[in-house]
Amino acid sequence: MTDKSQSFVRVLGRGDVLALGFGAMIGFGWIVLVGDFIGAAGSVGAALAFVVGGVVMAFVGLTYAELVSAMPHAGGEHHYAMRAIGPQGAFAASWAMVLGYVSVVAFEAVAVPQTLVYLFPGMGVGRLWTVAGHDVHADLVAVGVVVAVLMTAVNYVGIKPASAFQVVAVLFLVAVGAVMLTGSFVGGSAENMEPLFAGGVPGMFVVLVAVPFLFVGFDVIPQSASEIRIPHRMVGTLLVVSVLCATAWYVMVVLTAGAGLSAAELSASELASADSVAALWGSDAMGDLLVLGGIAGLLTSWNAFLIGGSRLVYAMAGSRMLPAWFGHLHPRFRTPSNAVLFIGALSLAAPFFGRPMLVWLTNAGGMNIVAAYMLVVVSFLVLRRRDPAMERPFTVPAGAPVGVTALVLSSGLFLLYLPGMPAALDWPHEWLMVVLWWAAGAALMWRLPRIAPGPDAERRLVEAMDARAGAPRA
């Protein structure tokens, strides 16, 4: 079988990779949700919860870092699970992560127009219908659709334009962060940060259940590994660095927002971080600047997950798990163009469901992302035991203890989404999304023959699927 990784153009450097991972993890939740976090856990308690969440993600990220350095191919976890636990395990990991990626892309398509309402209060006209008690407006749908078309077009025409957009947006986001941090010294108050701790362990769980959705994104680096031109060892290092940068960002946001307004004021605000910065600087314009930073965060996440999701769908098609149409590489732009169009089309549909879709996508996607993380960690542990001689340019010290810790921590996050737990999925909307997605996945997985895992598992799977279809072997 030909090496598909050579079909891509290797153009991503250090800055591109770091911007891709960090930008993917910084969406809009840091503006909207910080008031809820501080109200539940206190300013320092919420910051500590983010440190804990960052540690969980760092352990998972370390397993990814070793695996991407060993198998730097487009599709990331698809290849790790294929080698470690076979086609069925690879399909499960990939299918779960695809839902996670699609949920984020669709989330951004709804969130961008909803965010513009704060800058332009006159928006929200032309009522179309009602979804779960919330009106859907024509102008907001139009904005979401137009931006979805533009983001899809940027990714369709090449990884370099998409990467350049990512770097510029991340630099703007960092500048906004500097304004927020500086403001905490200019107009911040220690009294506003009281209480430092609130709600005990349950309060911290309010923050922790949001961690999978807020931190998801470092895993898009492995998805684009075939387009990265730096040494494989450095890719693993940058992946871990991106997680640490995101952790520092969320801790900074919580502490600076807490210094600007009291916990009660933050909880009552729809855009807590923006209102806090406006108070810190004594200027509404600074609050608007922070909203623009939030929009930049939305677009960096959208862009990164469109890149990652399309590469993962492309890899699944290359293994014959999805129809060959998804595995088409554009002859000029060298992008998985059909996979980009597919995910872009799904994002076009999301704005028609309005604001309730934001919550549904966050929870349904978060649960599946954690499930994929668990399978990647299992793959890491299996390969450490069964294939110790595999070349690993980036090697995690104390590999087995790190892997076991990552599995325990990610499993704990997964349990939070089950019935009776703090982040339990809602019925029918969220569970229905998950059930329908996995019903379709089960039908696709049923087609796969039983192939033993190993370094050549994908080749044997492709040969078996082609033989079954009567096609010539790749």
Verbal overview:
This protein has 474 residues and is mainly alpha-helical. The protein contains 19 helices and two strands. The protein has helices spanning 14-25, 29-32, 34-41, 43-70, 77-119, 138-156, 159-187, 200-208, 211-215, 220-223, 232-260, 263-268, 272-281, 284-318, 337-349, 356-386, 399-415, 429-446, 457-469; strands at 127-131, 134-137. It has a two-stranded antiparallel ribbon with strand order 1-2. Strand 1 and strand 2 (134-137) form a beta hairpin. Helix 3 (34-41) packs across helix 11. The longest helix is centred in the first third of the chain and has 43 residues, at 77-119. The chain is globular and about 70 Å long.
Average of the residue pLDDT scores: 88
Q: In terms of structural class, how would the helical and strand content be classed?
A: mainly alpha
Rounded to the nearest angstrom, the radius of gyration is 22 Å
Considering DSSP H and I runs of 4 or more, what fraction of the residues is helical? over 70%
Which blocks of ≥5 consecutive residues have pLDDT under 50? 1-6
Profile the largest sheet. 2 strands, antiparallel
Q: How many DSSP helices?
A: 19
Inertia-based shape: globular
Beta-strand fraction estimate: under 5%
Helix and strand element order: HHHHHEEHHHHHHHHHHHHHH
What is the distance, rounded to the nearest whole angstrom, between the alpha carbons of the first and last residues?
5 Å
Q: Work out the number of β strands.
A: 2
Strand order of the largest sheet: 1-2
